[in-house]
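Predict the 3D structure for this chain.
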Amino acid sequence: MTTKIPAPSPAQLEKDKGDGAFNAGNFPQAIGHYSAAIVHDRKDYRLPLNRAAAYLKLGKHEDAVRDCTTTLALSPNNAKALFRRSQARVAIGDLKEAEADLKTLVKLQPSDDSMKKELEKVSGMLKKASEPKSKQPITVSSAPQVVRRRIPITIVEPDGTSSTTVPPTAQAPKAVPKSILKKSSPLIEDISDPSPKPSLVNSTREAEMSEPASEKPPPPPAKPVRVGGGIFRANGSQTVFPVRDVKPSTDPTPSTSTPQPKPKAPLVTKMPANLFDLNKIWDLCPTADDRFHLLTTIPPSQFPAFFQTSLGPGLLTSIMQTFVDVVTSRGDDATKGKVKEYLNALSTVPRFATLLLFLSPAERDTARKLLSVLNSDGLSPIWAKTL
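Done. Predicted structure below.
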């Protein structure tokens, strides 16, 4: 009597395909299979856990954090989920949250020395990031002392005799008697006398201020300058230039032209080679217009082959928010038509309907906001059915 082996579930079949793609290094395809498996079985904690590992391989750390959090909701205190989430949080700079995950992991596995070392490493990074940066003192070198030398001076008389003298050392000036100072200048007064006396300088300034200001005469016109000369050579041949009068310019301020700012060139002028390059350049785009220009370098007909099964919720939400910002800022029908064309192209990406099911409530609000600024004419029905 033979026992009948039950057929594997659809979720298990997709999981096995995802494991095979992961082991082969095809992480985008592995993410697609794990996502399909989650649609069939949302209670198996291994599926989001494995997909988080694939996200980590592609550098999509925010998606990895979200899948690890989902795993911990299904399987509390899961060691792999805590460790992978700490790795993703370190990569995006959330050191405090990564330290908390590692502390929980060390409590669960106190004998694991590797986790203790990882915790010490993250704690050191957090401490170094919280320390204030000390300012280095600026050292200013003192000016070198000037050494003065006395040079002998030789005086030659008319009769041919000469005498050498050395300049005397500078001496402090002798004090002049106060009586001589009083008689020599009316600007010097005796400070020992406490009675105030009118100052000649102050009285002179007051007199100048009391007089009405007279207009200054215009400067005299510039006189012409005579220019001439020549080239005189040792062989006796000369080139003489005629003398002429040149009137100097009277404009004291030279004309300077203000340089015009160069037009800002677009960040990208050609289509990215693959999805990895798109993610890398997408994060470098400073404005929504730059991201919209980057996306329009990809022809809509090539969306299915370009994204395949690797389009994640994070990038899709960022694309939808870019569409919202561009349509809101421009508001013209041409932009709205272009956005609709790309939304219809996104709906042709493999497993796109499955991807919409994984959107969080906040990400769904972004999609609904995008649909509210557009009318539904000419838009693929998959958007309205799913959202």
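The two ends are 52 Å apart (CA to CA).
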